[in-house]
């Protein structure tokens, strides 16, 4: 399993030659036709064939032809042959397909992956038991079941409320107290389990009514890390719990990204620290002002690059607005933008198509100042 130490190792890597970082998503609808994956791989490698070393490209091709079993939801490969770097990590969670050539391994998508799917606890709750799952990067690593006191016939006695016979000692009130006491025990157990798992995200599962009520029993730090709720029963198979959990985590990540785009747009509208659209974002990048670059995944925007200062733009012009040198046509400004942000120590958020980012050339940024 990919660990944080693997990420740290890649971050710390210092070589003298360019490194190829390749991410390949393996969508399940293409599972039956691995040729679809291979076609995608070829397209990615072609994008960098003029910049990557032949040794790295053939090492990657060789890996996919001879070693890789095409199992899992995605794979990340890092190759810096000249400096002895080779890493290949398959994942059970999706990654956006992307290729990058740069001085250092491009690890931002992995850092995102750790943030979204790294360590999540699912608590499946009903009135008298709770099942806890620790899901690490899409795999269930541990689970345990906690049983509370037995609740008798809660649904049968629940009806007595309507006929006005409920007293402090009635069976239904008694049962509700048992449930409450059970949930208090479960909330404590959940706290201990989640701390031990170093969980950064929590999901609740059960009947709709139960999860809504149980949520109120949680310590505030887990309520703020609650990334979603879904319907399940104690009979639900582990693999279905896992699938539903991953779908919820993905949904949560998408919501966070849409929020990012919204806040960039709001800041841009106030002429504050946000900028939208390719032309303005690229200009801000050139002056080193970009903190977070939001980019639609797979964005292909042709443009120009200054032969003098390296300024990248989508706007045709006879000479560079910064240094006066001539501009040369480039196939994709997005690729240069990512490299610039990384060199400047900023971050990149890749967004799926279908967010408000599409309306602003697929490119926007949160600025440092
Ligand atoms: Zn220039």
Descriptive labels:
3 domains; alpha+beta; 11 helices; Translation, Eukaryotic Peptide Chain Release Factor Subunit 1, Chain A; 5-stranded mixed sheet; 4-stranded antiparallel sheet; Nucleotidyltransferase, domain 5; 60s Ribosomal Protein L30, Chain: A; globular; binds zinc ion; 369 residues
Descriptive report:
This protein has 369 residues and is an alpha+beta fold. The protein folds into three domains: 4-107, 2-Layer Sandwich (Translation, Eukaryotic Peptide Chain Release Factor Subunit 1, Chain A); 118-236, Nucleotidyltransferase, domain 5; 255-367, Ribosomal protein L30/S12 (60s Ribosomal Protein L30, Chain: A). Helix content is 39%, strand content 25%. The strands form four sheets. The chain has a five-stranded mixed β-sheet, with helices on both faces. It has a four-stranded antiparallel β-sheet with strand order 3-2-1-4, covered by helices on one side. A four-stranded mixed β-sheet has the order 10-16-11-15, with helices on both faces. Residues 156-166 have low confidence and may be disordered. The structure holds zinc ion. The site of zinc ion has 8 residues, from loops.
């Amino acid at each position: 399993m990919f660990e944080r130490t693997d990420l740290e190792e890649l971050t710390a890597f210092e070589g003298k030659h360019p490194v190829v970082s390749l991410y390949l998503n393996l969508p399940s609808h293409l599972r039956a036709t691995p040729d679809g994956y291979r076609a995608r791989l070829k397209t990615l490698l072609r994008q960098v064939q003029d910049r990557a070393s032949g040794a790295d490209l053939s090492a990657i091709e060789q890996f996919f032809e001879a070693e890789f079993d095409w199992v899992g939801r995605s794979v990340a490969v890092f190759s810096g042959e000249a400096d002895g770097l080779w890493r290949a990590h398959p994942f059970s969670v999706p990654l956006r397909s992307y290729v990058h050539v740069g001085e250092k391994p491009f690890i931002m998508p992995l850092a995102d992956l750790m943030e979204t799917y790294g360590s999540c606890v699912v608590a499946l709750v009903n009135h008298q038991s709770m099942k806890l799952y620790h899901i690490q990067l899409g795999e269930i690593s541990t689970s345990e079941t906690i049983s509370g006191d037995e609740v008798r016939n809660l649904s049968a006695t629940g009806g007595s409320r309507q006929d006005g016979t409920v007293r402090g000692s009635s069976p239904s009130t008694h049962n509700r107290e048992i449930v409450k006491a059970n949930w208090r025990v479960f909330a404590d157990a959940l706290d201990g389990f989640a701390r031990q798992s170093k969980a950064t995200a929590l999901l609740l599962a059960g009947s709709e009514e139960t999860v809504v009520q149980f949520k109120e029993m949680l310590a505030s730090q887990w309520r703020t890390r609650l990334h979603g709720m879904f319907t399940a029963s104690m009979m639900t198979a582990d693999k279905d719990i896992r699938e539903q959990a991953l779908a919820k985590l993905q949904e949560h990540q998408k919501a966070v990204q849409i929020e990012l785009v919204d806040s960039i747009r709001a800041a841009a509208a106030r002429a504050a620290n946000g900028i939208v659209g390719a032309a303005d974002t690229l200009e801000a990048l050139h002056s080193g002002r970009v903190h977070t670059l939001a980019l639609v995944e797979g964005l292909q925007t042709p443009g120009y690059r200054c032969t003098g200062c390296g300024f990248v733009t989508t706007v045709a012009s006879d000479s560079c607005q910064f240094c006066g040198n001539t501009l040369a046509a480039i196939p994709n400004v997005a690729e240069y933008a990512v490299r610039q942000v990384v060199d400047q120590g900023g971050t990149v958020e890749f967004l799926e198509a279908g967010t408000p980012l599409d309306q602003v050339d697929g490119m926007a940024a949160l600025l440092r100042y």
